[in-house]
Amino acid sequence: MNKRFEKHVDGRSDLFIPFIVAGDPTEEATIKLALMLQEEGANAIELGIPYSDPLADGPVIQRASIRALEHGMSLEKAMNIVPKMRERGLEIPVIVFTYYNLLLQLGEERFFALVRENNIDGLLVPDLPFEESEEWRESCKMNDTALISLVAPTTSDKRLTAIAKEATGFLYCVSSLGVTGTRTDFHSSVFEFIDRVKSLSPIPVAVGFGVSAPEQVAKLKEYCDGVIVGSAIVRQIEAQVDGLTNEETQVEAIDHIRSYIRDLISPYEKLKINT
Amino acid sequence: MNKRFEKHVDGRSDLFIPFIVAGDPTEEATIKLALMLQEEGANAIELGIPYSDPLADGPVIQRASIRALEHGMSLEKAMNIVPKMRERGLEIPVIVFTYYNLLLQLGEERFFALVRENNIDGLLVPDLPFEESEEWRESCKMNDTALISLVAPTTSDKRLTAIAKEATGFLYCVSSLGVTGTRTDFHSSVFEFIDRVKSLSPIPVAVGFGVSAPEQVAKLKEYCDGVIVGSAIVRQIEAQVDGLTNEETQVEAIDHIRSYIRDLISPYEKLKINT
Amino acid sequence: MSTMVPDQRGRYGRFGGKYVPETAMYALEELEQSLDEAMADEQFMANYHEELKKYSGRPTPITHAENLSKRLGGAQIYLKREDLNHTGAHKLNNAIGQALLAVRMGKEKIVAETGAGQHGVAAATVAARFGLECKVFMGKEDIRRQELNVFRMKLLGAEVVPVSSGSKTLKDATNEAIRYWVANVEDTFYLIGSVVGPHPYPKMVRDFQRVIGDESREQMEDLPNKVIACVGGGSNAMGMFYPFLQDDVQLVGVEAAGKGIHTGEHAATLSEGRLGVIHGSITYLLQNETGQIQEPHSISAGLDYPGIGPEHAYLSETGRVTYTGITDMEALDALKVLSEEEGIIPAIESAHALSEAIKQAPDMAKDETILVCLSGRGDKDVHTIMEHLGGEVDE
Amino acid sequence: MSTMVPDQRGRYGRFGGKYVPETAMYALEELEQSLDEAMADEQFMANYHEELKKYSGRPTPITHAENLSKRLGGAQIYLKREDLNHTGAHKLNNAIGQALLAVRMGKEKIVAETGAGQHGVAAATVAARFGLECKVFMGKEDIRRQELNVFRMKLLGAEVVPVSSGSKTLKDATNEAIRYWVANVEDTFYLIGSVVGPHPYPKMVRDFQRVIGDESREQMEDLPNKVIACVGGGSNAMGMFYPFLQDDVQLVGVEAAGKGIHTGEHAATLSEGRLGVIHGSITYLLQNETGQIQEPHSISAGLDYPGIGPEHAYLSETGRVTYTGITDMEALDALKVLSEEEGIIPAIESAHALSEAIKQAPDMAKDETILVCLSGRGDKDVHTIMEHLGGEVDE
Ligand SMILES: Cc1ncc(COP(=O)(O)O)c(C=O)c1O
Ligand SMILES: Cc1ncc(COP(=O)(O)O)c(C=O)c1O
């Protein structure tokens, strides 16, 4: 098993797993954001690879992708940022979040070479469902890489059982149908669904899609092992794009986002694990 | 038979039958033009009634119709002009040239009442072919009115014979297919056609459609008994519209047209029959 | 109803005939004779039916407008789908027939008139298909309004001749087409687009359009209680009605009442016109007191004609067919309803017939039937509809 | 060629599959099961065929393009007239099938993507006909370019949702439609317009379009030597080819070569694309080196798609079907020729297939035959044609 997952994720029940887009708005900002997130208690980072056609994503992440693509970000370049994060103190696992077409173009061999070179810990492919992922599951195993699986409220019991059985890292529980994006409230049936997943999963269960308020985090705390926060953070980044791009204002911009995060995950009463 | 036809048309072979549109451009101009035409040797006048849809006419006469309609000319009004012409010395026959719809709207009875009241001598209905005209032929006969028939190069021998047999006044020989308008030359076969008509007709044969030059008149003189001149004259009128509308310049405008006519029919070496 | 019309002189009762200049008589005689020969020639008729089938896509189906009928709660409405013909309207049935006749007569050119351009497109289409040259006369005003159809005709290889005489619209285009034809009758066939004009045109066009009614009779399980069609010149209506004339079926022709009969801006020839002569035929027409022909008004270019086919005048007078009027706005409403209820955007012309059906259906029993002639599709009208419904349709 | 495709996993060889977010898997499973049940249900299939016949006007005829064949002096060209379908293209065959399935599944709403608006109009049409609510996603850029089709959809009662993500064209509209569907899968059916998307869509659309080929086999006296169809997503081509796959018939798919393959501005997915995933399926697609999907170019909006149906990728790889490219200008030329020779204005999409036939016919014997799928009519394209041919056609 991947060591960083063992240390920072396994067995925990206060997981905070933030999602940021590589290169949004710049490589340097991405590194600084990752470090800040670790400081605020992140247990792993989902590093989103910008894509022209992000089918599972809502408008906030779509816009972030466009910002990153405009500066020429790619899967390979994104993976090459990770060692720079590590150099500057990042210890938590980094999960590459990429659409399948980008993986296909890079090629399996090259991808895992980069995984090994760059100390990458996990892979999440939103459009590679369980049925199509066997081969990639194997390769990930061989490379000590977690392949994060998703389950949704509409996932049948049969599939849920099969997916949970093979899942590594943590099980990503989609809170609602549709795409990523912030939602003000969850449907009550979601909690039954999370209970069901929890009961079947041998590994931590984290809930994502729409987490954007401390109240949600507090509620979810009772049902699962953590939250994945994407659009809510990316929207903060979007609001600070100018600040993040400019060296002089970067710290201030990051601190803005930091205080948002601090508030958001306050129900977890996290200790700072670094710095 | 109609007395004016007897005196001015019957038995002649130098017929000059001009066509003008009633009310083009004004009633007074029409009267003056009729008198001038008589002075220049006209044997009869075709008084065209303006119509919205003159199917047998070319652009020149169409425009004249529009001019006349703009001043509210109608079949009845046109017929009422004739007594004024007579008062001022018109002796030659007047043939009302009207599309059938106008006749239908006025009604047969009212039409012949006006014929009798106004001393009208003939009727020409371009869209009332032989087959449809029996009833009107009868009424015309009863009212001493010539019903002018047309024959065309495409008219079959059979129809030609039937038409010639019933024709009154003169037989109108259409020089070419298509609509009225000036043509620079006749097709050579026209002369054979005129010969054929001449040989079948007990009454004078006049040729119309396109007569606009003295050379044509000279040539036709050898084959038939006269010419009908429409568009060529109406075009002269069109050129003098302003002059004809204005009282002070009317005489001058009429004289312009007069000299055109004089030149056109010079081959006939007409004597002025009235001054 | 058992006397055959037209008679030898081309008369339908006191209507019809041949009121044309002597110069045109030869052409009409020639046409009459050739037409009689052709209609008696099995090979010719087989050709005609083959083209209808393999080129134009006939038979056109009859669609049960189930949603609409349910909504109205009365008679069942059926639609004869002439909109599914090649080029989008019933016009092609007739154009194919006349073009085949032109070829049989050895003519090399056809000439046609057009208002909105539908018949012009049909004429240009058959000219291309049967290797004829084609001139289409069209009012300058209409050319301006119907840019796309003008381009379609040109694309099909036809020459579109702008007409600037008179009111620069359909009736003037017809005048010019006749003038041109008369002057070029040797090699030119005049392809008229409706059951109008001098004999034998009204009869010929009817006989080439009766396939609408013939098919319908065969396709309907039982005779319909009512048959409704719109009437411009009257060709789709004549084609639809003719095979039902001897049956116990109510026939309803629908004229364009434009902005309303009482506004004077309409094309309701039968109810507001007087007897007269238009384009070579005695019939009803819109005219002023002294007999000058008047411009009609209808939102639908295809109904915007000041006359009506002489056989309709006759059928109106004998009482066999009832004629009613539908306004611009009523037609637009019907168009919208059919679009939303059945997914069929009808031509605005056809929407007049439909609107009458919508009026009459609720008073009929659920097991009664109305057959509506859906003479054409509405694509050509989308611009017009946009102008008039724009606000309503757009949210 | 005797192995059945797709397999259980929705694979055509190495193409196809279901590359969608987990949130969409349930909907696909549900669809797959319902589809299998429906296709095995005689009543369902009878309904489908009844609507094709009585609503859309099938069977569409096959027209012998005699003038064109004569002019080319080689093979006889026959046209399968999908342009005569209601709404003007083959798209309705599939839309009818999917809408009936949606009703059978108890869905109340349909959602669809559209580029030029042809599939959007077909979807809006069947939604009206079968009483479903309809949302059509359409790129903002396309909405601007296709004003009339937008209005047609609205008139049919559909909501047109502007898409401003990505390049604001078809691929982005498809993304948005999928996103919307996934979020509303309980009551919403996603009606895809071509043989693309995740399994079972490519198979379902093929099976609803195979009526084109099935009818053609029956209508042709002998098997044609060649069958040619244009390929955007590939639905008219699959529908046409599928029933001929086991026969000794050459099959040719024609992609849009746009301004020329070497300009980079084209939609020639098979010859210039690389293996990848688009809209849930592994197939060929136009993309840059790192895998970002590229905007294609074609003068015809319906061929302007960066991917291609997975079964085409498979048929290309097995060699059963040959794929070629036709440029914008070649297609326009073919469009002009067919208009003038046969009186049929084809859709610019279909003109690509025709252009290939025009290239190949002269090298074939006079008693050989080419069957071309005339997938749609050109009325929708008249504006585009005007822009490009304006000067040439106008005198
Ligand atoms: C679709 C459609 N319906 C009806 C008409 C009216 O013509 P008619 O009365 O001859 O059928 C037209 C004429 O253009 C038309 O295009
Ligand atoms: C007329 C026509 N032909 C072809 C196509 C291309 O689609 P497909 O390849 O799925 O047949 C379209 C798409 O809009 C179309 O409208």
Please describe what this structure looks like:
The complex is a heterotetramer, with 2 copies of chain A (275 residues) and 2 copies of chain C (395 residues). Chain A has 275 residues and is of the alpha/beta class. Chain A has one domain (3-267): TIM Barrel. Chain A is 47% helix and 13% strand. Chain A contains 13 helices and 9 strands. Chain A has helices spanning 3-8, 27-39, 59-70, 75-87, 100-106, 108-118, 134-142, 157-166, 189-200, 214-221, 231-239, 241-245, 250-264, and strands at 15-21, 45-48, 94-97, 122-124, 146-147, 149-151, 171-174, 205-208, 226-229. A 9-stranded parallel sheet of chain A has the order 5-4-3-2-1-9-8-7-6. In chain A, strand 4 (122-124), helix 7 and strand 5 form a beta-alpha-beta unit. In chain A, helix 2 packs parallel to helix 13 (250-264). The longest helix of chain A is centred in the last third of the chain and has 15 residues, at 250-264. Chain A is globular and about 50 Å long. The two termini of chain A are 27 Å apart. By secondary structure, chain C is of the alpha/beta class. Chain C has 2 domains: 10-53 and 91-205, Rossmann fold (3-Layer(aba) Sandwich); 59-88 and 210-394, Rossmann fold, CATH 3.40.50. Chain C has helices spanning 22-39, 42-54, 66-72, 91-104, 118-129, 140-145, 147-155, 170-183, 201-209, 211-219, 235-241, 269-272, 310-318, 328-342, 348-360, 382-393, and strands spanning 11-12, 15-16, 62-64, 76-81, 109-114, 133-139, 159-163, 188-190, 226-230, 250-258, 274-278, 281-285, 321-327, 369-374. In chain C, the strands form 4 sheets. A 6-stranded mixed sheet of chain C has the order 3-4-14-9-10-13, with helices on both faces. Chain C has a 4-stranded parallel sheet with strand order 7-6-5-8, with helices on both faces. Chain C starts with 10 loop residues before the first strand and ends with a helix. The model of chain C has no long low-confidence stretch (mean pLDDT 95). Classes of the chains: A alpha/beta (275), C alpha/beta (395). The structure holds pyridoxal-5'-phosphate (2 copies). One pyridoxal-5'-phosphate is lined by residues 89, 91, 116, 118-119, 194, 230-237, 302-303, 347, 349-350, 375-376 of chain D. Chains C, D: It catalyses: (1S,2R)-1-C-(indol-3-yl)glycerol 3-phosphate + L-serine = D-glyceraldehyde 3-phosphate + L-tryptophan + H2O. Chains C, D: InterPro entries: Trp_synth_b_CS, Trp_synth_beta, Trp_synth_beta/beta-like, TrpB-like_PALP, TrpB-like_PALP_sf. Chains C, D: This is Tryptophan synthase beta chain.
